[in-house]
Specification:
It contains 13 helices and 13 strands. By secondary structure, it is an alpha/beta fold. It has two domains: 172 residues, Aspartate Aminotransferase, domain 1; 239 residues, Aspartate Aminotransferase, domain 2 (3-Layer(aba) Sandwich), CATH 3.40.640. The strands form three sheets. A seven-stranded mixed β-sheet has the order 4-10-9-8-7-5-6, sandwiched between helices. A four-stranded mixed β-sheet has the order 1-2-3-13. α10 runs parallel beside α13. The radius of gyration is 21 Å and the shape is globular. The chain starts with 5 loop residues before the first helix and ends with a helix. The mean pLDDT is 96. The structure holds pyridoxal-5'-phosphate (PLP). The site of pyridoxal-5'-phosphate has 14 residues, from α4.
């Protein structure tokens, strides 16, 4: 090892990087303390620069569905890298990934690769406006769709701590055509609305399941108004199950957005739709979008290698892992007399320190801001378990989390819950 410490690195980082981080939640602002600086990661574990090992439930906020440094993914990346890192010309790898994604998603005939989830939703909104000739979009409070101007309003995740406007630096004009509605209530929409964008399972205000009929209601409302329904599956895509949220809930959107899992830990996003809708995109149509690194060969190789591991059996395993963890956490909190709920949708887990499950942003905020998560987070970190440093994030167990890690995690929850 070397003599690097988290403390020393954070000080140096803060001198040259705003807040010492390249994405706000990493700064531990809402939980306090010094972030751990990761030196390496393997399977269910991350190791910081001081050599401390943590069972990792952050997993890069979703990309690490196989666990860290899965041999199939690292081999694909290494192999691709030896053939060059970017060409600015089409490759077989991007065709293979697009074919795999379209084969899995019923009704999605074409897909365009970009470099982040933010880029995917931002461009999908442009596509929806171009395809419908309408300006307005509707989003739900507490849903997070990345950090593009028109979608930051009332965003979840790290934006939740910033207040309703989302961010300084966003003009009134940029959000003038964004309507914000409460999650889990089917809004009234008219023929000025180009698209309704929704997280089919809200995973950036804690984990909130769509109420029965909500997604189907959105489908009907969009059909009636001639608006496009857009599922932001950046978290749910290829995580919930083989075909994502559309398959899970049996509701088909018009446009899908992806990220996280499809990049295997490299910077990737994508959006897809029917051939008809996608034909509006340049070079076929008038809606422009481009990217120097779009379809990057390393990222495509990593994403394809990851998806190939995600068989139906893999989803069964991941769901069983999440269910065991959920049951263990519920029992541990109950035994310690800690009021908590642990919602789960398939392999996705959430945690709220309140007795009723939130259904929208307001009810989520009331729980997420009660101060308990911060203490729990640090208690778990002291026990060698890394959760996201913010109450609004979900837990991401991976396929590398085996019974040993799950039992150790539940044991840690027992210990920390007793001292909450
Ligand atoms: C993470 C996330 C995004 C943004 O993706 P980035 O790759 O961070 O830009 C968009 N939508 C949802 C639902 C997300 O969870």
């Amino acid at each position: 090892m070397n003599d690097l410490t988290n403390e020393a690195l954070f000080a140096r980082a803060q001198a040259v990087i705003p807040g010492g981080v390249n994405s706000p939640v990493r700064a531990f602002g809402s939980v306090g303390g010094t972030p751990y600086f990761v030196a390496r990661a393997e399977g269910p574990y991350v190791y910081d620069v001081e050599g401390t090992r943590y069972i990792d439930y952050v997993q890069s906020y979703g990309p690490g569905i196989l666990g860290h440094a899965h041999p199939a993914v690292t081999a694909a990346v290494n192999d691709a890298a030896t053939r060059g890192t970017s060409y600015g010309a089409p490759t077989e790898a991007e065709v293979l990934l697009a074919e795999e994604m379209c084969a899995r998603i019923q009704g999605m005939e074409m897909v365009r690769m970009v470099s982040s989830g933010t880029e995917a939703t931002m461009t999908a909104i442009r596509l929806a406006r171009g395809a419908t000739g309408r300006d307005r979009i509707l989003k739900f409070a507490g849903n997070y769709h990345g950090h593009s101007d028109s979608l930051l309003v009332a965003g979840g995740s790290g934006v939740a701590q910033q207040g309703l406007k989302g961010s300084e630096g966003v003009t009134a004009g940029a959000v003038a055509d964004t309507i914000v509605a409460p999650y889990n209530v089917v809004p009234e929409i008219d023929d000025t609305v180009a698209a309704v964008i929704v997280e089919p399972v809200a995973a950036n205000m804690g984990l909130i399941e769509p109420q029965p009929g909500f997604l189907a209601g959105l489908r009907d409302a969009c059909d009636a108004a001639g608006a496009l329904l857009m599922f932001d599956e950046v978290i749910t895509g290829f995580r919930l199950c083989h075909g994502g949220a559309a398959e899970w809930f049996e509701v088909q959107p018009d446009i899908w957005c992806f990220g996280k899992v499809i990049g295997g830990g490299l910077p990737v996003g994508a959006f897809g739709a029917s051939r008809e809708i996608m034909s509006n995109l340049a070079p076929l149509g008038p809606v422009y979008q481009a990217g120097t690194l779009s379809g990057n060969p390393l990222a495509m190789a990593a994403g394809l290698a990851q998806l190939q591991q995600l068989t139906p059996a893999a989803y069964d395993q991941l769901t069983a892992t999440a269910a065991t963890l959920q049951a263990g956490m519920i029992a541990a909190f109950a035994d310690a007399g800690v009021v908590a709920s642990v919602p789960r949708v398939g392999p996705l887990l959430g945690l709220f320190f309140g007795d009723t499950l939130p259904t929208d942003f307001d009810s989520a905020k009331a729980v997420c801001e009660n101060g308990v998560y911060e203490r729990f987070f640090h208690g778990m970190l002291d026990q060698g378990v890394a959760l996201a440093p913010g109450a609004y994030e979900a837990l991401f167990p991976s396929l590398a989390h085996g019974s040993e890690q799950i039992e150790a995690t539940i044991e840690a929850v027992r210990h920390v819950a007793k001292n909450l």
